[in-house]
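Feature request, filed as a ticket because there's no other form

It would be nice if the structure record came with a short human-readable summary line next to the tokens. Right now we just get the raw output. Example of a typical job, pasted below so the devs can see what we mean:
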Amino acid sequence: MPRQFFVGGNFKMNPGSVEQKKTIVKVLNDADLDPSTEVVIAPPSLYLIPLKDVLRKDIKIAAQNCYSKTSGAFTGEISPSQLVDAGIPYVILGHSERRTLFHEYSEVVGHKTKAALDQSLKVILCVGETLQERDAGKTTEVVNSQLQAVLDVLKEENYWSNIVIAYEPVWAIGTGKVATAAQAQEAHYDIRKFLKEHVSQAVADDTRIIYGGSVTAANCNELATQPDVDGFLVGGASLKPEFVDIINANRK
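Raw output as currently delivered:
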């Protein structure tokens, strides 16, 4: 069965005002979007519920993070169960900015992932290497270690049906640098190979692996032609009208 194309928009700590949020939503609500592509956007947590109430129903909402506990004295955190109760179906976990700026080790990401899945959230799981690691020829080693930390806590194979893996080379995020189509395909192929060898052939075949890292309307079409690239996780361009073109990159 073909994997459904997936495009996520990670707004990060944007936009800066409610009015700007309304402008972004209007563009998406009025757009002619490929109905065969699953679209998910991740606004700051402050906007999750208000945005869900005004966004067209064929676009889903994701949180940008959640904690590994369901409740308790964890100031500033949001629990998976709170997201589910609010009707938020997805969460992004393991983004490189969380790993580097907030020191979330792969083991932490693993526990967060299991906690989210246990509460019936779907997870956009981010992995990727730095420029130094790529130059040292360690891309596969680094990405596999990040995946292994998740695999260590997910003992049942059925967990993987609710995970979308986002390969985001750290050196390409927000820098304007983009992995070539060949580089993206190679990394995605290696991720699928890891899933085949360490989980199962079925999981390897069915799991969507999307690319993130300065994706724009100018480069998305070539990337979308790669056999193991199942979509995108878009940063800055998701705040612009060109996001519609990226969503439609796989339109037949």
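Something like this underneath would help us a lot:
The mean pLDDT is 96.
The chain is about 40% helix and 15% strand.
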